Amino acid sequence: MKEFIDNYLGLDSKMAHSVAPFLFNPGSLTNRFNQGRIKHFIHPVRLYLVMSLFYFFTISYLLSEFDLKSFEDEANFSSATIDEFKNNDRLKQLSDSTVLGLMNDSLVSKYSNITSFDQLYDSLATEFTEDDLEDMVVSLKSIEVPESDEEGTIDRLHRLARDRRINDKAFLDSLTGDSNPFDSSFLSKSQEEHLSGQTRKIFENDQGFKNFVLGNLPLTMFVLIPLFAGILKLLYARRKHLYIKHVVHALHIHSFFYLLFGIGLLIIFKLIGENVEGYMAFRGITAGIFFIVTTTYAYISFLKVYKQGWFKTLIKFWLVGFIYSFFLNSFFLLEVMISFWYY
Q1: What whole-number distance in Å separates Cα of residue 288 and Cα of residue 321?
Q2: Do residues 18 and 45 touch, judged by C-beta distance below 8 A?
Q3: DSSP letter at 91?
Q4: Rounded to the nearest 5 degrees, what angle is found at the Cα of 259, between the Cα atoms of 317 and 327?
Q5: Cys-Cys link to 250, which of 54, 77, 228, 323 (CB 3.0-4.6 A)?
C-alpha cells in the first residue's frame, strides 16, 4: 500500500505531474512523449494499466450482482399491464384490494361497484380489445411483489444442468427442444459434443463463466491498442508519423476513456438508483454528457497531435470511430466465443 501511494499518489510523483495535462490538456502528454520530455511524466503504458485496472474493476463490481434470473424478473417489478395481473403467476398472488388500489382514480370511479380484480378484468374485456389491455400499464413501485411458488426457467435449467443423471444431450434437448443449434455440417461429432457440454457447464455455474469472460476482457482490449494505432497510421499515412506515435496516442486516449467511463458507470448505476424518480431519464442524460465529454476530448487530442484543419480532422475522427467500433464489437464477440469454447 505504501509503495502504491508513493508511486501513484505522491505529490512529487510522475502521476501527480501528469494529472493536469492528462485531464485538461488533450494530446499534450502524447506530444511531450514524442518530444522526449518524459522524465517528469508517467509512461503511457503504466498510465494505461492504472486506468484499465480502475475501469475493469468497476465493471466487475457493477456486474457482481448480475444473474441470469434478472431476465425473468425485470419485467415484473417496476410496472405491469392489466393483462399481466390476470396471467402472471407472481402478480396473481396479490390481494384484490391491493390490485384495485393500484388502479388510477378514473378507472376506479368508472367501475365503483366492482370489488374484485376478476370483475374489473371482465368489465374491461367487454369494453376494450386484448391489445388495449396489454397497453394499460400500472405502476408497481410502491408494493412488493411476492415470489412465485413455481420454479422459474433459469432455476429449472440450473437444476437440470447440475443433475448428473442427465447427459449433455438430454440437457440440451430441455433447453432447445427437438432442434439442435449445434447440428451443422461443418462441425464434427466431437465438436458438437464439446459445444453441448460447454452450454451445460455455463448453466451449472453462470457466475463463473461471467467472471471468466470479464477476466479475458482486459487482454482483448490491450490487443486492440495496436489495431487502433494501425487505423491512425493508415488515415495519417501522408503525415509520415512513426507508428509508435500512434501507439502512444492510442494509449492516452484509451486511458482517458477508461477513467471517464468508469466514473460515469459508478454515477449511473450507484448514485442514480431505481429509487430515484425518473431514474432512466437521468441515467440517459448522464450517459450522454459523459459521451460528449470523452468524444470532445478525443477530437481535441486529434487536433493537437496531428495538427490538421478542424474539418479534415473531424472526418478522420469519425472514420476512426466507425472502423474501431466495428473491430471493438467483433473482438468482443470473438472473446465471448473463445471464452465459451475454453471455459
Answers
A1: 17
A2: no
A3: G
A4: 45
A5: 228
Confidence check: pLDDT of 30 > 60: yes
Q: With beta carbons less than 8 A apart as the criterion, state whether 245 and 38 touch.
A: no
Q: Which three cell numbers stand for residue 42?
A: 508517467
Type of residue numbered 318: W
At 235-266, the pLDDT tens digits run: 999 888 899 999 999 999 999 999 999 999 99
Closest listed residue to residue 316, CA positions, set 241, 204, 224: 241
**Unique residue bearing C-alpha cell 443449434:** 181
In 10 A of CB 85, how many CB atoms?
Answer: 21
C-alpha cell at 71: 431476465
Cβ neighbours, 10 Å, residue 48: 22
- What are the backbone dihedrals phi and psi of residue 138, each rounded to the nearest 5 degrees, phi first? -120, 135
167 three-state secondary structure: coil
The contacts found for 146-152 with CB under 8 angstroms, 24 or more apart, are: 146/90, 146/93, 146/94, 147/90, 148/89, 148/90, 148/93, 149/89, 150/89, 152/69, 152/72
β-bridge mates for residue 81, sequence order? 137
Q: Would you state the cell numbers that stand for residue 114, as one nine-digit string?
A: 366492482
- pLDDT category of residue 317 using cuts at 50, 70 and 90: very high
Q: What is the pLDDT of residue 74?
A: 47
pLDDT over 50 (residue 75) = no
Domain ranges of the chain: 2-68+206-342, 78-139, 163-204
Asked if residue 42 has pLDDT above 60, the reply is yes
Which amino acid type is present at position 343? Y
- Asked whether the beta carbons of 140 and 78 are under 8 A apart, the reply is yes
Among 29-38, 144-153, 306-315, name the one with the lowest average pLDDT: 144-153
Q: Please return the burial class of 17, using the count of CB atoms within 10 Å of its CB with bins 0-12, 13-18 and 19+.
A: middle
- pLDDT for 256 equals 97
For residue 316, the SS3 value is helix
Entry field: residues in the chain: 343
**What pLDDT score was predicted for residue 76?**
47
